[in-house]
Amino acid sequence: MKTKLLIPFLLLLAACNTTNKPMTEEQKVAVKDEGSVVVNELFDALKTSNTEKFLSLLENSPDYTYISAGEAYTYDKNVEMATQYLPYVKKQTFLTKFEKYLIVDPFCFIYLWQGDNGMYMTSGDSTILEDYVLSYTFKKSDSGWKLVFGHESQKVPLPIDTTMMQ
Predict the structure, then answer these.
(1) pLDDT lower than 50: segments of the chain
(2) What is the pTM assigned to this prediction?
(3) Where is 145: in which H helix or E strand?
(4) 108 phi and psi, to 5 degrees?
(5) DSSP strands (E only) in the chain
(6) Distance from CA of residue 155 to its chain's centroid?
(7) N or C: which end of the chain has fewer CB within 10 A?
């Protein structure tokens, strides 16, 4: 299973890295500044369940992959899932505990996020997903920054005693 996920991720990184020259600090800051705008747009779309905005930030390509709840989604499957699911989400909240931008090259960056994700459904149900982790890879094209790979997971208890590792 890990190999199944690792190979597409490594291929994605290789596909993003279109230049061999090291980036200057100014270039890295510029990518991070641009990247933070698209990341905020993505979170804003999720916070307000704006399906149209969310989908506009995804790269419609055969390379697109999104992993959630043990499933790998293509672009088409993610569109199907989002259009069926997001209308039932009244709002989401995100409490950031950790975030990091990994700049791959001038046209690709990886955004890592960990925190608490509150989900409030139109039915009145709600839940807080604690220690939720997101990793998003964005690629810049003529149409701007687009999400080409995403992965989300939640911390689960290990089935072994970990006290000896502390």
Answers:
(1) 1, 10-11
(2) 0.82
(3) strand 144-154
(4) -155, 135
(5) 65-68, 71-73, 89-105, 108-121, 126-141, 144-154
(6) 16
(7) C
